[in-house]
């Protein structure tokens, strides 16, 4: 299937966004040969800075295959930003509503039309203390298994040095380098034509995230932790620690009151 034309709005966004990105960031982009020249596909990308969607879009714009991101529905509602989001064909995500699944249907439709849909499978900025990818959500795997399209694992590093996760001020000097490494398609064929259970989607997601992490290991020249950071597991552990501390304090209070009597 032929690729979709870039269009007016994407070209306008490029005119606005590319100059500051070129000034702020050097570029070390590799693996462009793995971006399909034709047909629909998915990219699975790690997320470690609020500005890396712009820098990653710059990378993929230069390949001629512009990405369609899944983004919060509120960004589409009004003003220039809303017009740009709609005009560039981004996909709104309606969280905690009856329209929550519409983003996945729209992503499938976009892939079927021969477009690229860019997923941040982590769903948010990584909370791993060293910036490694966390466990992923299953949306990318769900779309990939339903469409059987190529899934290109992409790692990026450098925007997090310019604007670290959750930081309010950028570190402008010295000038940082945005490193991107796209890998060959993830082999998901063993998951095809099977019942799309939660366990199947979880396993396919782990394969995708392992491929993304491998690309980041190559960029950073070091090994990632054997077990990816899991925000859900961390919340459970934090809750247990808090409960244990509360019980310990309660026990100390009771003991002190008993000694006082």
Automatic annotation (TrEMBL):
Skewed-composition ranges (Polar residues): 243-255
Limits of the Phospholipid/glycerol acyltransferase domain: 41-159
Top-level taxon of the source organism: Bacteria
Ranges annotated as spanning the membrane: none
Annotated signal sequence range: none
Alphabetically ordered keywords of this record: Acyltransferase, Transferase
Compositional bias of kind Basic and acidic residues: 219-240
CDD domains: LPLAT_AGPAT-like
GO molecular function: acyltransferase activity
Ranges where the record places region Disordered: 219-261
Protein known as: Lysophospholipid acyltransferase family protein
Organism from which the protein derives: Streptomyces venetus
């Amino acid at each position: 299937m032929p690729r979709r034309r870039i269009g007016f709005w994407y070209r306008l966004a490029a005119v606005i966004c590319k100059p500051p990105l070129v000034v702020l960031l050097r570029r070390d982009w590799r693996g462009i040969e793995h971006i399909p020249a034709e047909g629909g596909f998915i990219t699975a990308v790690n997320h470690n800075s609020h500005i890396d969607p712009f820098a990653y879009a710059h990378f993929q714009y230069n390949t001629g295959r512009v990405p369609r991101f899944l983004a919060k529905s509120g960004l589409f509602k009004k003003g220039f930003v809303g017009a740009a989001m709609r005009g560039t064909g981004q996909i709104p995500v309606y969280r905690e509503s009856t329209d929550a699944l519409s983003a996945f249907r729209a992503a499938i439709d976009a892939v079927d039309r021969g477009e690229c849909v860019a997923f941040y499978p982590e769903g948010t900025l990584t909370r791993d203390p060293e910036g490694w990818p966390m466990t992923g959500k299953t949306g990318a795997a769900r779309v990939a298994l339903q469409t059987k399209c190529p899934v290109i694992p992409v790692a990026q590093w450098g925007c997090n040095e310019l604007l670290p996760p959750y930081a309010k001020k950028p570190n402008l000097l010295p000038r940082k380098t945005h490193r991107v490494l796209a890998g060959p398609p993830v082999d998901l064929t063993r998951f095809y034509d099977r019942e799309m259970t939660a366990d199947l989607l979880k396993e396919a997601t782990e394969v995708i995230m392992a491929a993304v992490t491998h690309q980041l290991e190559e960029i950073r020249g070091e090994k990632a932790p054997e077990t990816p950071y899991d925000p859900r597991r961390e919340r459970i552990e934090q809750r247990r620690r808090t409960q244990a501390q509360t019980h310990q304090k309660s026990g100390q209070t009771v003991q002190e009151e008993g000694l006082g009597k």
